[in-house]
Amino acid sequence: MRCLIILALLLVALPAVAQKGPADTLWELYQEGRFDEVVQQGKALLNTGTETAQVNLAVGRALADQDQCGEGIIYLERAAEMDLDRSWVYAWAQNYLGNCDWFAGREDAARRAWMAARDADATHNSTRQAAMNLVGFGLAESFVTWTDFTTDHFAFRFSGQLTDLDREVYARTHEEAFTTISTFFGGGGGNPIRFFVWADQEEATAAGMPPLGIAKPEYDMVHCVAAQTVGHEMTHVISHRALEPTARTGLINEGTAVHFDQTGRDQLARARRALAEARTPAGEPLPVVATAALWDDWSLLPGDVSYPVAGAWVAKLIEQGGKEKFLEFYSDQTLAHARTVYGDDLQGWLAEFDAALAD
Ligand SMILES: [Zn+2]
After folding, report:
1. Ligand 1 centroid vs 214 CA: distance in angstroms?
2. Beta-bridge partner residues of 224
């Protein structure tokens, strides 16, 4: 099932005070993820003359959640139409209609639906979800000042605040990086990557975006700030397309993006410096964290330390084990899978790497 919820995961959108009605049992099933039963029982209600906006919404959402937008749209539109008060039912029907439109390539319809959901201002969650979709997919009003620049592999959108940025140079360096990174991972086809380039985090935050950069490979989409490295975010997209990892870990996924960021920086030196400078909230040096432990729990170190550590580790893994083994390993990025692919050598490499970090 494709995830239709876009930037936030809000599975359940029910009113705080539920009114008793024919849809109540449908929502219980819906919350349990029993979408087939929601559809079946909802249709039975509709066929026997019990039609409410909520019943239509439940059926429409359950269909959309199962990638059956073609049929789901009929129920979602009916739900929106019947909810004359434009309550949460209307707002969620429009949110889902927007999702369906987006994935069918109907951008203008998606914009209209998400704007309707947002402007209904029915509940905090429905309004927020719609606003996030509008910004996340570049459809909000604020994007009218942005400019487009399309190349072979990218559909760039540049913030209107980036008056000094040389877009052609930016696009060319990104195309070059795309070729380099695709040569390693394979693939290279696919839709152009929608590449949103914000002036800075301040602009993004003001628009309601979380901290950047963000890569959403499943939507062929990146949001970044202009000052970010050329290769990091596109590596997430390219590696995902080529190898479709089923198990991701922070150490490998982020480490790979850092390794291929195209800066050529010595990540081991950066990691050692970051480790030496980092302090706990109490002002103490950080406790020693073995790379194997970080592999299992990516939260053990702060990001300014863990990212260069990961980049340096991925560099070593590729150097020691070679490209082919790395690509084989990458689809399941867990430590357990690394032990299977690399065998007994891995333990020695980890020990050498931890020693080099601490040196
Ligand atoms: Zn990343």
Report:
1. 7
2. 197
Q: State residue 19's pLDDT score.
A: 60
Let me know if residue 65 belongs to a domain. yes
Residue 16: the pLDDT is 44
Distance CA 264, CA 273 (A): 17
The count of domains in the chain is 3
Distance 32 CA to ligand 1 centre (A): 33
How many whole angstroms from 122 Cα to the centroid of ligand 1? 35
Place of tokens 């949001």: 223
Residue 1 confidence (pLDDT)? 28
Q: How confident is the chain (359 residues) per 10-residue block, as mean pLDDT?
A: 38 51 92 96 94 96 96 98 96 97 95 98 96 96 95 96 95 97 88 96 95 93 96 97 95 98 95 92 91 97 95 97 97 98 97 94
| Phi and psi torsions of 197, nearest 5° | -115, 110
Query: Do 254 and 344 share a domain, yes or no?
Result: yes
pTM of this structure? 0.87
179 within 8 A of 140, measured Cβ to Cβ = no
Q: Which two tokens stand for residue 322?
A: 């070679």
Domain annotation covers residue 330: yes
Q: In angstroms, what is the span from residue 280 Cα to ligand 1's centroid? A: 23
Whether 157 and 195 have beta carbons less than 8 Å apart is answered as yes
Question: How many angstroms does the Cα of residue 48 sit away from the middle of ligand 1?
Answer: 52
pLDDT score, position 112: 98
Distance CA 221, CA 100 (A): 17
Please list the alpha-helical segments (H only) found in 139-249. Answer: 167-185, 201-206, 232-243
What is the span of the domain harbouring residue 254?
A: 250-358
Sequence letter at residue 84: L
Residue 167 one-letter amino acid:
R
Of 196, 192, 162, 161, nearest in space to 175 by CA: 192
Q: Rounded to the nearest whole angstrom, what is the distance from the C-alpha of residue 258 to the centroid of ligand 1?
A: 7
Indicate the helix (H) or strand (E) that contains 75. helix 69-82
For residue 78, give the CATH number of its domain.
1.25.40.10
